């Protein structure tokens, strides 16, 4: 089970942050449906060539301050 929970509304904002930080990610890389956090983490782990802990940390950090533009 994923360590985070992302709503569709929050995902829209988080996706923008991720695209700014990792401009090589495509729209297909950032496809997400609520409840599919585990699939998203696994995919980003592969695309970013980072460990799971880093991907989860990055997503949590983005969700923590969802209203600002920084990741």
UniProtKB/TrEMBL annotation:
InterPro entries: YjbJ_sf. Gene3D superfamilies: YjbJ (1.10.1470.10). This is General stress protein CsbD. It comes from Pedobacter segetis.
């Amino acid at each position: 089970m994923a360590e985070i929970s992302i709503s569709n509304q929050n995902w829209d904002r988080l996706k923008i942050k991720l695209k700014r930080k990792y401009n090589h990610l495509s729209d297909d890389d950032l496809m997400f449906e609520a409840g599919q956090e585990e699939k998203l983490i696994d995919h980003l782990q592969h695309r970013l060539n980072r460990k799971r802990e880093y991907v989860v940390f990055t997503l949590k950090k983005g969700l923590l301050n969802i209203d600002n533009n920084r990741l």
